[in-house]
Write a structure and sequence with these properties.
Blueprint: E1 7-13, E2 16-22, H1 28-35, E3 54-57, E4 60-63, E5 76-78, H2 91-98, H3 108-121, H4 127-133, H5 145-158
Parallel strand pairs: 1-5
Antiparallel strand pairs: 1-2, 3-4, 3-5
Helix pairs in contact: 2-5
């Protein structure tokens, strides 16, 4: 395949089916932001180190800045725009606000996606499990304590 050739992929983004002609080397971050106008996913390091671009692919957190869009053919992608029901915030989004866990907000979309995956896989995580899940997400403002408190509050609310 030459640089000017494209491939067409099928994927679902936030519940909506898409057929996309993608160029070789096009990253999922570029596709989400520049073609689908889903700008909640942030561009941070472009090296998969900061987690600002975290999205869920088949419910697994991935760094969209280093994932080729061609690799998501046939897969389900969820971005921060897909967390709320448009009428109200998700419980985790609300908890981050309630616990003052949002400062500048740049890292927040990536944190939300990572923590959403954690709570879906482990509805009652320990603080240590939350901290371990956050290992790939850098936040320069909060110090993480408020973020962990917010997750623990959501976990407590979800307990039967």
């Amino acid at each position: 395949m030459t640089a000017d050739q494209t491939i067409t992929i099928q994927c679902t983004v936030n519940g909506e089916a898409h057929a996309l002609a993608v160029a070789p080397g096009e990253t999922l971050l570029q596709t989400l932001r520049n073609r689908l106008w889903l700008t909640g996913t942030k561009e941070g390091c472009l090296e998969g180190e900061c987690g600002a671009c975290t999205v869920l692919v088949d419910d697994v957190p991935v760094d969209a800045c280093i994932m080729a869009t061609g690799a998501v053919d046939g897969r389900d992608i969820r971005t921060v725009e897909g967390l709320s029901d448009k009428e109200r915030l998700s419980p985790l989004q609300q908890a981050l606000l309630d616990h003052a866990a949002v400062q500048c907000g740049f890292c927040t979309p990536g944190l939300l996606m990572t923590l959403t995956a954690l709570l879906e896989q482990q509805p009652s995580p320990s603080p240590a499990e939350v901290e371990a899940a956050l290992a790939g997400n850098l936040c320069r403002c909060t110090g993480y304590r408020q973020i962990i408190d917010a997750v623990m509050a959501v976990a407590e609310e979800q307990r039967p």
